[in-house]
Amino acid sequence: MRCRSDLRVCLNCVHYDARAAHQCRERRAEPVLEKDRGNFCEYFDFAVRVWTPAATRGGARENAARDQLSKLFGD
Q1: Which of 6, 10, 11, 22 could bond to 38 as cystine, CB 3.0-4.6 Å?
Q2: What pLDDT score was predicted for residue 5?
Q3: pLDDT 10s digits, 10-69
Q4: 73 three-class SS
Q5: What is the C-alpha to C-alpha distance for residues 40 and 34, in angstroms, rounded to an integer?
Q6: Following CA atoms 23, 26, 16, 11 in sequence, which dihedral angle do they give, to the nearest 10 degrees?
């Protein structure tokens, strides 16, 4: 998210599902083409997610790269 970006977007909705038809589990909702743009869907409800800091989000590939760098520089 950036400053002044829309919050009421499909990507922030509890019904958003990348695997569902039109990426929405709510069958009565109108299809929205741009999921990252503001819209006026009447079924919109904010999704509740647990925030994790970027430092702990690293995947196995990132951790392996960090390990290789520490071995290279002797940290």
Answers
A1: 6
A2: 86
A3: 999 999 999 999 999 999 999 999 999 999 999 999 999 887 776 666 678 888 888 899
A4: helix
A5: 12
A6: 100
